[in-house]
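Q: Ribosome biogenesis protein BRX1-like, please. Structure only.
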Amino acid sequence: MAKKRKHSETVPTVSVKKDENALERPKRTLMGWKDKEVTKKSEAGSDHAVFRNKEKVLVTCSRRINFRYRHLMLNMVSLLPHCKKDNKVESRSSKGATLNELVELKGCSSSLFFECRKHKDLYLWMAKCPSGPSVKFLVNAVHTMEELKLTGNHLKGSRPILTFSSNFDKDVHWKLLKEMIIQIFGTPKEHRHSKPYHDHVFVFSIVDDHIWFRNYQISVPHNESDKVARGGLDKMTLIEVGPRFCLNPIKIFGGSFGGPTLYENPLYVSPNQIRALEKKQKAGKYSKKVKAKTRRKMHELSNPLEPDEFADMWKE
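A: Structure for Ribosome biogenesis protein BRX1-like:
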């Protein structure tokens, strides 16, 4: 049986000569073709390096969290395309070191930690890692998207417009909170998970020293006759999407999840104290009833009825 010839023997090798005058093919990137000469000119023209926002937020929660608060955390994950979700963390005194390590492993620069205690109270830690500062909030008036069932709807991953009430510029601690909210809730430009659209608004307003959060969709008519001109805000409407919650600031710390106390809210009352007062009020009602019964008995003993002379008249 004859042997087969090798492929190298049948196909002659042709050496391709490179043309020295031919231009070099530009490098291909995810954003298109990148020409070396253009990049060199742009780098030479700009004296300082262009700032690029690489903000990433780690979102996690504590163990034994309530289902309602877990749904709120998932709503926030869906609203922030630049966030990373992680497993539950044990709520202990050493949680700060654990969270800082998780943030470093995930390559993030900020953290949102939802801490649930006694299956009733929800605390939100908002921290810049690893150097700080960090804020601890008590979360009240929680209403999730699934619970509200509002008609608003916007693109998932689109960039939000952040709006703040004028109260944020009054005091120093409100200015610090405003800057932290801008850095954490603001989606970076050209983030790979985000879309280059602004079709919803995050509203942060201060009422009674509490921060109230609302999320609205920017609705624009798409008919040819009702087309909105650039800058025409008259025909634009806001439709609420959700979720809703209220943040009561407790303390602002100098470090990440701890450190020196920069600000402490003097009007803050813990939910444990509120529940204790309610129990005392309920116990006070019962004690009033018992005291009223004893007073009645003492009155009857001190003021006995006179014997009636006609009481035994009809016994016979």
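A: Brief note, in case it's useful. The first strand starts at residue 27 and ends at 29.
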